[in-house]
């Protein structure tokens, strides 16, 4: 939905794009009520599709809008500061999922549910309905909150972002200009590799703790939350550093740091390996908004369409983790006298991602002031 969202924003303006995003987001949340009552998986998928269409509109609208709200020289720092608050939502989501959903689901095991499906389907249906009711509650509340935010934005006077040719849509010319812009294309590629690295490092913290250290998944998940806290803290620190350091240089330095910590995850066993994996989050915190800001720098009105490519690049997060999972399913790897588990070797993929990001940072640092 990133490209349709970008066209909508180009045709109208950022504010209407944000309102459309909030509207779709709220509708998707509220559709969980009939989805839960109908108990049909396809209806849940439709609800999620509408919800995520709203998220796509929001991301495609908000990021370039923030970049346009002030001096272009400080645009990347401005976007970093705005996105510094995003991980707070992630932490809140983890807490809500743990305390208000997972803790309230029926503890009946999967084996027992299969047994009930054969012998007492009515009881199983009641258990399933109770579980769905637990899920409906948080989404209902979220939908109401988003509707309130929508009303606030509808009446708020936001800075205008429409240019003199704001109604003109020439996609062929715009796409041609974007494709011929080497920095933009490199930014899209770097963004895909960054999101892939982020999802891999966060998702497989649990597997690393369980496979390498014998932790339960709940214990390993606590390290995921620690990583998120480090991510939040580092984002604010890095935003401050952007006042004194070139965005490309800082991006390159942090990419190299992320690569070094990931190598520690591969070659250092025990808790130190896990600590190295958690520390990667400190280096990742700057990357998404900085890549975004560098890639769209100087694009002007084309940034509205250009932002779609950077949102599409999030798809890297769905392509790379399965590859890492496939490596984890292999046997151990022998490197001469050094024997490495498949779990540790699988983190060679994030190392490659950080090398690509580091190259993008280096290449832009030498070309942009």
Task: Provide a descriptive summary of the structure in words.
- The chain is mainly alpha-helical and 369 residues long.
- The protein folds into two domains: 1-155, Growth Hormone, Chain: A (Up-down Bundle); 168-369, Up-down Bundle (Growth Hormone, Chain: A).
- 78% of the residues lie in helices and 2% in strands.
- It contains 19 helices and two strands.
- The chain has helices spanning 2-11, 14-30, 32-38, 41-68, 75-83, 86-101, 110-119, 121-155, 171-179, 182-203, 205-213, 217-241, 247-267, 271-284, 287-296, 303-312, 316-328, 342-345, 348-365, and strands at residues 333-335, 338-340.
- It has a two-stranded antiparallel sheet.
- Strand 1 and strand 2 (338-340) form a beta hairpin.
- Helix 3 runs antiparallel to helix 4, helix 3 packs antiparallel against helix 8 (121-155) and helix 4 packs antiparallel against helix 5 (75-83).
- The longest helix has 35 residues, at 121-155.
